[in-house]
Amino acid sequence: MDLSEPVLLTPEGLEKLKRDLEVALKRRVEAGERLKEAFQPGDIEDNPEYEQAKEEVGMLDSRIYELQEMIGRAQIIKDTHSSVVGPGSTIEVVDTEGDVETYHLVGAVESDPSAGRISVESPVGRALVGRKKGDKITVSVPAGSLTLTIKAVK
After folding, report:
1. Residue 8 near residue 104 (C-beta atoms within 8 A)
2. Residue range(s) defining the domain that contains residue 102
3. Exposed, middle or buried: residue 141 (CB in 10 Å: 0-12, 13-18, 19+)?
């Protein structure tokens, strides 16, 4: 995680991160209590409950730090109404076989290709940024190359 780069998020994505942080903070308190309960002086080395609680506290601390960092560096993506593709754009594309796909361009944190939310940092996302309706792009993907024509930018 590059701590100098902004984290591109939709308003909904930022709210989700905040909810995730609240949940992680509550779980951290509970894990801390389990750690205290499992601690038995002189019996730490052979105490699986203590080791498990200690590991959970460490993982939660890392997740809390990560969420706080992302929230602190959040840059909100607004839905654009431009004819040029950029973060926040919804793009309709046609592939060489005539199949139509709709993508919503989001930051890496919110990327979910199966839901049509692709990252501006992905190969397809990078190739689409700055393009307009009618532009044709060819992108290298793991399965070979993908040629898309932009049908609409919303």
Report:
1. no
2. 90-153
3. exposed
As a whole number of angstroms, the distance between CA 35 and CA 32 comes to 5
Kindly state whether residues 71 and 11 are assigned to the same domain.
yes
pLDDT along the chain (154 residues), means of 10: 82 96 97 86 73 94 97 89 90 95 95 95 95 96 92 94
The pLDDT score that the predictor gives to residue 142 is: 86
Whole-structure pTM value: 0.80
148 Cβ neighbours under 8 A, 6+ residues apart? 93, 94, 95, 101, 124, 128, 136, 137, 138, 139
DSSP 94: E
Same domain, yes or no: 99 and 149: yes
User: Residue 134 has which token pair?
Assistant: 């009618």
117: β partners: 104, 112
Task: Name the token pair of 95.
Answer: 């592939």
Which of 76, 101, 122 corresponds to the end of one domain?
76
20, containing H or E segment: helix 11-38
In a shared domain, residues 13 and 48: yes
